[in-house]
Prior knowledge:
By secondary structure, the chain is mostly helical. It has 17 helices and 15 strands.
Amino acid sequence: MMRNTMAQPRQMMRLSVFFALLLPASAFAQVEDDHAIAYEWIEVQLKGIRVDFARPPIHARNLYHVSLAMYDAWATYDDVAETVLLGKTLHGYTADFDGISESILPFLDIPSARKEAVSYAAYRVLTHRYASSPGVVTAQARFDSLFTANGFDPSLTSTNYVNGSPAALGNYIAEQVIAYGIQDGANEVFDYQNLYYEALNDQLVVSDPGNPTIADPNRWQPLAINGFVDQSGQVLDSSPPFQSPEWGWVAPFALEDTQMALYERDGETWPTWLDPGSPVYIGGDQPADIDSMYKHHFAMVSIWQSHHDPYNGVMIDVSPANIGNVSALPGTLAEYGEFYNYLEGGDSGTGHDLNPITGLAYEEQLVPLGDYTRILAEFWADGPDSETPPRHWFSILNEVMEHPDFTHDWMGEGSEIDPLEYEVKAYLTLGGAVHDAAIAAWSVKGYYDYVRPVSAIRYMAGQGQSSDPALPGYSPNGIPLYPGLIELIDDTDSLAGPGGENIGKIKVYTWKGPDYTETIEDENGLQVPVDTAGNISGVGWILAENWWPYQRPSFVTPPFAGYVSGHSTFSRAAAEVLTAITGDPYFPGGMGEFPCPQDDFLVFEVGPSVDVTLQWATYYDASDQCSLSRIWGGIHPVTDDIRGRQMGIVCGTQSVELSNAYFDGSINNTCGFGPYGGCLGDLDGDNEQTVEDVLFMLANFGHIGPHPADIDLDDLVGTTDLLILLGIYGCQCP
């Protein structure tokens, strides 16, 4: 069975970053023969992301823009492919391009010119975008090393490309991409600051019990944390504000204007892409079923954290024989209960009978459930020394392209193409997908401004229980009771307190939280687990008012609203892309793997208790596992998950479709929309432009008054209409 190592264990990742600084410049140029220069630039960008602030939408945009710059540099020398920005008007920005002198082109070494132009374009964009990174010294050293190792000169800054200089072309493309980014709605000039968003709820002091400061349990609540450490391990002086709630204003790649709605809230306008509709709410005039779903969805997050005990004897087969192969996503809220295993965890996936590459059954891998769930929560959380989502999927793409069974046949069809051509096409497609996923997901986050589990669970517990009016502490807004998992405290309970002060309160059987792990202070002044076997918080009964997600106490939960899950949106979009561009839903060899060595992988606690290897048969399996990890990690309820996946499908498939239109040159052969709606030139309404439409016009030639064949709207089907139709004949209907 082929083995595809998708990343590195914790210590190895940190050592790789350390040793990278010690390597000679020439080491950056030494990659396998089937890798081209675009791969190398994405690799150093991923390393740059690891030392930057964790800002998912911003890094998705950066990956897209670097990918766009490299693709346009490549496409300029291609007779078929169309550029995305160069020589085009894109979202109101015109990137003028006079072309390379025809007298020069025959004398250019095109492969060398492409490598040079791609490198200058990538280098300039990366240098600009990571200039304000807290790890700029490290990141820029890597950019410089790769650039000079390939013989390129940073002092060559000319943009005069007309006389054939590939370096000047790359510089000019970067200049245009940077200028385009200044006006694309991201507010880059002012460091992506929010312009009008204001949090409705006061901060939750997570170190204190309960949630006394929440005013609306349906809205996002900022956290008060001393020494906040973001997802990339950067220490901040204070808890950050809502990250990118106005990202819906950013210009997309493949999302269409018709997929964006404008809503009003709090006196402001909120552009919302691929609007999934409202999440489930609690209280007020909510329908009973919606109110109930809110309570049960958030209670499920606490219940799933009761699975984080590796010593309770519960074992699970985590091989593709048992995990993955979800047949379909639930279409309605009522179907969520059939999709997830509420008490035991996981989803409706049935696993795979055989590895389609080897023809053999997947080998069973029995491990403690508590190890599996904790690994998922940490692996897909993308913490320090990793790429953080959505960049994780660029890393996965690169690992796929490293596999010995991988071939450069685009979409799995035809003969293999040049590695550089494959790379720039793959990165543009994936970059466009995750960029659009960020725009869609964060536009929804900004508008719906939805609560996170730590706020919702503590709020409900503070209200009481909602299961039985005859029992103490009943409240319609309380948390539902589950025997053995969520219960009332009585006078016989060990949690009752010395004076009985906790009698009638709610207790939960769940992960006990960071206070139950033995920690020490690291070199940065942060508390980290003492590196001894079995040093875990464990699972047990705690006061619900002290509930924590399975995260670091210096992080707790991401600084933006929950609905919808960015991880779910990013991952499903990426899975759609990788499935399409490889022509196969399966990883090379029929399985991707990631080893998690015993006591040498987890960061929140020490573990796992045994060696575990994450395994996925398909890209969809990996994506689905990522989505589940956010529930086990205490970050999202199911409402956030499914609708994020559904949005990701749209982002991924549309990016593939649009990218291919650029690649085959058909982007300029789209009909557009006619004056009466529908496809321009499609007069008989069959969504195709054929000879039948020409015959239709001729049959109605001379008609006076409104008519489908009156393209110019002058109330006459005449010569002008015929000439317009013939001029666009053969175009592709949108």
